[in-house]
Design brief:
The protein is built from seven helices and no strands. By secondary structure, it is mainly alpha-helical.
Length: 123
Amino acid sequence: MPQNFVGFCASVGGMVLKMSKKLRDDNLDFLFEAVLQLESVEECANFLEDLCTIQELKSISQRLNVAKLLSANHNYNYIVDKTGASTATISRVNRSLNYGKDGYKVVFERLRENGLLELEEHD
């Protein structure tokens, strides 16, 4: 069982406690607990493929990639060219990075700690 995935799931579980009460419900709690049961990237991929449409998975992965590029200080034009994301999506992700619950930050720190992410800083 890769420690990086377990660490990620633990961070997701911790973030559940901080989520806005109007967003929290038993269905979301069950989803988060289900994700915490996964023990490998393959299990995660299989679960998400069953749970989400291809478009939903592409949108989620695109937002994660946008967050990675914003964290590396790339500008919007570069990110649009690299990811195909709209400027509205980039702006929403940027707002989450700056004013959100630090979910992206936790995930990126864990990925770096486990050698799975190197951010190429852009000035």
